[in-house]
Design a protein that fits this description.
The protein is α+β, with helices and mostly antiparallel strands and 139 residues long. It has a domain of 61 residues: 434 Repressor (Amino-terminal Domain) (Orthogonal Bundle). The chain is built from five helices and two strands. The chain has a two-stranded antiparallel sheet. β1 and β2 form a beta hairpin. The longest helix is centred in the C-terminal third of the chain and has 53 residues. 5% of the residues are buried. About 7% of the residues have low confidence.
């Protein structure tokens, strides 16, 4: 079942109109309508708000093939399960890769600046030594 179909089903279960849902989300009704029509997808924050409005879990908005169990660990007789949506994971990885490239460029720029500063410091030290020698020989 598509996300749009689920949105329609959840909305009808709550006997809400598209206008009422969009007002609660603080978005325009055509935006919400495009989600129900599977023309566009809501972001994670909107899904979280929809879960509250419809009294559902976030996982209820995704099909089981869209969700995979990443890992589980036993802690004090309870299980911690991390559920990751592959699309969200892919987008997160893309964002982190872009951030990494940006940070690498910043580091390169800072290293270049540091190298120039080190050269300048070396020149200043040489100038100080020269001036000190000239001052000593002049005394």
């Amino acid at each position: 079942m598509s996300l749009g179909t689920k949105l329609i089903q959840f909305r009808k279960e709550k006997k809400l109109s598209q206008v009422e849902v969009s007002e609660r989300l603080d978005i325009k009704q055509p935006t919400y309508q495009s989600w129900e029509a599977d023309q566009t997808q809501p972001n994670y924050d909107s899904i979280a708000k929809l879960a509250t409005i419809f009294e559902k879990k976030i996982g209820d908005f995704y099909d089981s093939e869209q969700i995979k169990v990443n890992n589980h660990q036993e802690h004090n007789n309870t299980f911690e399960v991390n559920v990751i949506n592959e699309e969200v994971t892919r987008k997160l990885i893309e964002a982190l890769e872009k951030l990494l490239v940006t940070k690498e460029k910043e580091i390169e720029r800072e290293c270049h600046i540091s190298a120039l500063q080190a050269q300048e410091i070396q020149k200043l030290k040489q100038e100080i030594e020269r001036l000190q020698k000239n001052g000593e020989s002049g005394n």
